[in-house]
Specification:
Layout lengths: L17 H12 L13 H24 L6 H14 L3 E2 L12 E4 L2 E3 L14 E10 L2 E10 L5 H19 L7 H14 L3 E2 L5 E3 L6 E5 L16 E4 L2 E3 L5 E3 L7 E3 L5 E3 L2 E5 L4 E5 L1
Antiparallel strand pairs: 1-4, 2-4, 3-12, 4-5, 6-10, 7-8, 9-14, 10-13, 11-12, 14-15
Helix pairs in contact: 2-3, 4-5
Bound molecules: zinc ion.
Length: 285
């Protein structure tokens, strides 16, 4: 038998990633851009990521059951922290590069990275993104959802719906050996068709063995451009879509909060995706 596969599966290369590697070599010779092989996860790693994604979605389900008008974003943090622990996981954001909380809660004009606070009380008409990242058995799950509190404005409703649709449309076009740029193309197209604006400079990312891996997933892209997506790659798609402009500013005081430039609304939805041999699998949403 030949050498063991580079993916770390312990299997002979011939029986493992040889076919994919041959195909990648052929495509590279045709001029396509291919990712580094290190971004391709083996079967055991994929199973670990699948479990972490499942646990992460359970934490978001718990938030969905409990979120209500009158609660603070700190209350959401408390729910995420205690339920993640109960499930045997670790909130990945807590202490990450100094981030002080177990979840991000971005309300209305907050684009992302909102720090939970006792002072931020959810009110009728608010839209809030809850972004959860969970470490489970050493693997990382990552997803976020939008929650709408009570009656929200027509435009808020349209923005949240458009953001959800944009992710679903982009995901529906995923297949092995499609281009990374296709994702941003479909998201930006759908946002613009509805009169909204995608944030260009904050994107999705590879995930699974750590919280932020390559590749960077831009939510504005060109069809047929960028690296090809290979079976075994795991990454997030998480567009931030704004009402009036894709521009934003960062709160220098807390060092994290990102806000729309003019105080209008922003929505975000995040899925964690695996590229498979015949399509894709949503690992967390
Ligand atoms: Zn292999």
């Amino acid at each position: 038998m030949g050498k063991n596969c580079w993916c770390g599966s312990g299997l002979p290369h011939e029986a493992c990633h040889k076919a994919i590697e041959d195909k990648m070599r052929e495509l590279r010779a045709q001029g396509y851009r291919l990712p580094n092989k290190r971004l391709i996860k083996n079967a055991a790693q994929i199973e670990g990521c699948r479990e972490a994604g499942r646990i992460n979605a359970m934490v978001l389900d718990k938030v969905a059951e409990n979120i209500r008008i009158g609660m603070s974003t700190q209350d959401i943090d408390d729910i995420v922290h205690s339920y993640t622990k109960e499930l045997g996981g670790i909130p990945a954001t807590l202490g990450f590069e100094g981030y002080p909380k177990s979840v991000c809660t971005s309300v209305n004009d907050q684009v992302c990275h909102g720090i939970p606070s006792k002072k931020v009380i959810l009110q009728e008409g608010d839209i809030v993104n809850v972004d959860c990242t969970t470490v489970y058995n050493g693997f990382v799950g990552d997803a976020s959802r939008m929650f709408c509190l009570g009656e929200i404005s027509e435009n808020a409703k349209k923005l949240v719906e458009t953001t959800r649709e944009a992710v679903d449309i982009a995901v529906s076009h995923l297949k092995p050996y499609c281009h990374l740029g296709d994702i941003g193309y479909y998201i930006n197209k759908h946002a613009r068709e509805n009169g909204f604006h995608v944030v260009r400079d904050i994107g999705g990312h590879g995930v699974g063995l750590s919280m932020h891996e390559d590749p960077y997933v831009c939510h504005i892209g060109r069809l047929g451009h960028g690296i090809l997506l290979i079976p075994g790659m795991i990454f997030t798609i998480e567009p931030m879509i704004n009402e009036t402009s894709g521009d934003f500013w960062m709160d220098e005081q807390d060092g994290w909060g990102i806000y729309t430039v003019d105080g209008t609304l922003s929505a975000q939805v995040e899925y964690m995706i695996l590229i498979t041999e015949d399509g894709y699998e949503i690992l967390s949403k």
